[in-house]
Amino acid sequence: MTDVRDIEIETIDGNKTTLRDLGGSTYLIVNVASACGFTRQYEGMQALYEAKQSEGLVVVGFPCNQFGAQEPGTHEEIATFCETQFGVTFPMMAKIEVNGDNRHPLYAELCKVPDHEGKEAIKWNFNKFIVREDGSVERFSHRTEPSELPL
Questions:
Q1: Angle between the N-to-C axes of helices 41-52 and 75-86, in degrees from 0 to 180, rounded to the nearest 10
Q2: What does the alpha-carbon distance between residue 148 and residue 151 come to, in Å, rounded to a whole number?
Q3: Strands (DSSP E) along 39-114, which ranges?
Q4: pTM over 0.85
Q5: What CATH number belongs to 4-144?
Q6: Does 36 qualify as catalytic in the annotation?
Q7: pLDDT for 2 beyond 90
Q8: Rounded Cα distance, 80 and 66, in Å
Q9: Cβ(46)–Cβ(31) under 8 Å?
Q10: In the structure, what pLDDT confidence band is assigned to residue 26 with cuts at 50, 70 and 90?
Q11: For the chain, which residues make up each domain, given as ranges?
Q12: Of 36, 64, 82, 111, which one is the catalytic site residue?
């Protein structure tokens, strides 16, 4: 497996970076959407970021419009929504695809860790991956609340 911390990603404001460049030692990576029944999880993600950032946790949101077209906005609209509705201060990335032929390389690597049913494809918004300091990856369902994650 390629070290996911070194795969190029793009911030919501168009800058190229990597997870490693974001700092921290542990990353919570979540495919997010603004108009989903699970959108309220932004609140828990922000709370985790605030509580554990000093311990090296970086929460990273990846907007995705592949599930029910629940993230149709522009990057500016998404950023404004996250900031005004949930006070998001953790890094938000540019909109990506997490499944299919145009799957982002980061998700191509992350999804090598199958879900609890043994499947690689992302099922819905707010699936979660924890990338540990040693580069190991753990995967969690969209139904797993941020407060339930082993961080």
A1: 70
A2: 9
A3: 57-63
A4: yes
A5: 3.40.30.10
A6: yes
A7: no
A8: 20
A9: no
A10: very high
A11: 4-144
A12: 36
Q: CA 140, CA 116: separation in Å to the nearest integer?
A: 8
pLDDT tens readout for residues 87-139: 999 999 999 999 999 999 999 999 999 998 999 999 999 999 999 999 999 99
Strands (E), the chain: 9-10, 16-17, 26-32, 57-63, 128-131, 137-140
Beta carbons of 28 and 40 less than 8 angstroms apart = no
User: What band does 1 get if pLDDT is binned at 50, 70 and 90?
Assistant: low
Structure tokens at 108: 């191509």
Residue 140 tokens, joined: 């969690």
Structure tokens at 5: 């911390």
Write out the two tokens for 51: 């509580």
Per-residue model confidence as pLDDT tens digits over 53-81: 999 999 999 999 999 999 999 999 999 99
Residues 19-41 have a mean pLDDT of 97
User: How far apart (Å, rounded) are the C-alpha atoms in residues 6 and 85?
Assistant: 31
The number of angstroms, rounded, from the C-alpha of 26 to the middle of its chain's C-alpha atoms is 13
User: What is the chain's length?
Assistant: 151
The SS3 call for residue 11 is strand
